[in-house]
Amino acid sequence: MFFALTEEQQEFGAAVAGYLADRFDLEAVRGVVEDADGDGHPAALWKAAAEQGWLAVTVPEEHDGLELGLVEAHVIARALGAGVAPGPWRGTVLAAEAIRLAGSPEQRATWLPRLAAGDAVGAVALRGEAGGTLPVVEYGAVADVVVARSGDGWTLVTGASAAPVGSYDGTVRLATLDGGTVEALTGSTDLDARVAVLVAADLAGVAREALTRTVAYDRDRRQFGVPVGSFQAIKHALADLHVAVTMAEHAALYAAHAVDVSLEGADLAVAVAKAKCSDAAVAATGAMIQYHGGIGYTWEHEAHFFYKRAKRLAGIAGTADAHRARIAELTIG
Question: Closest by alpha carbon to 305, among 50, 24, 70, 43?
Fold first, then answer.
């Protein structure tokens, strides 16, 4: 069976990538990275995310959404990863997913239209328990609603106090949260899997763009009268990275589909995707620095945006080693 993105899904991703290239390129990203005291939440980018449906991607039509699926959300995540774009898109989409899947009719009516329109910012706390301290929440300081754990379930937290936390990855802003009003989500949700899929997709985008930029540079840069990319040690390494990144992209796509339609074996697909995407992104961004020569190590070059994002996200929603252990558990017990 041939399994790939549809033409419409490819166009959706191309539209996101096109906007970033034209309206929020790496110079705009640098502006966020170097504004250490800023909230990392560019208003123009957020407005575009709302107007173009990036925030409404999985929200039902009855709540002003596009009612698409996790595959389409993963397409957006890949494009945002390729652009190392800042902002609380992923947290907002995942908060909407938690409310869509596990919220009451009243909670859905209250939050989903606001999240879809960009009138509210969402976040997901992957560590800590609701009612206590929630450490290292992406964009916790600007979030209107945070989805946090409570025992075996999830809750909504509003009105929490935030304290900024520093990060070596300047394309994100982190905070710890304390207190706030806690409201239970009474339904069930596979939110952990959805988090892992969208993080994996972001990593796949980071990996592909890092590799693409590295190949382009090594085709142009010349030593001894020839492109450095023609040297066997470099071209073989880049070829191996291309294979790894391609496999990671396919793994992320299949995991998104498997979770979307509740396929048997979706847990395994998610573990494979997160492990492969983490490894591929760290390897591709490390090679980006190495194969850009002396300039790749400088602050002025963009390579560190990609590397730092890859290193941080590789540890989010389970490390590659943790997911490999999960693969072993699911396959050989």
Answer: 24
Quote the CA–CA distance of 311 and 309 in Å, as a whole number. Answer: 6
> Does 230 have pLDDT greater than 60?
no
* Rounded Cα–Cα distance for residues 140 and 92 (Å): 11
Query: What are 268-319's pLDDT values in tens digits?
Result: 999 999 999 999 999 999 999 988 887 888 999 999 999 999 999 999 999 9
The full 3-state SS of the chain, as one line of letters, equals CCCCCCHHHHHHHHHHHHHHHHHCCHHHHHHHHHCCCCCCCCHHHHHHHHHCCCCCCCCCHHHCCCCCCHHHHHHHHHHHHHCCCCCCHHHHHHHHHHHHHHCCHHHHHHHHHHHHHCCCCEEEEEEEECCCCEEEEECCCCCCEEEEEECCEEEEEECCEEEEECCCCCCCCEEEEECCEEEEECCCCCHHHHHHHHHHHHHHHHHHHHHHHHHHHHHHCEECCEEHHHCHHHHHHHHHHHHHHHHHHHHHHHHHHHHHCCCCCHHHHHHHHHHHHHHHHHHHHHHHHHHCHHHHHCCCCCHHHHHHHHHHHHCCCCCHHHHHHHHHHHHCC
In this predicted structure, the answer to whether residue 231 has a pLDDT above a threshold of 70 is no
Query: What one-letter code names the amino acid at 291?
Result: Y
Q: Which residue has the tokens 């995540």?
A: 77
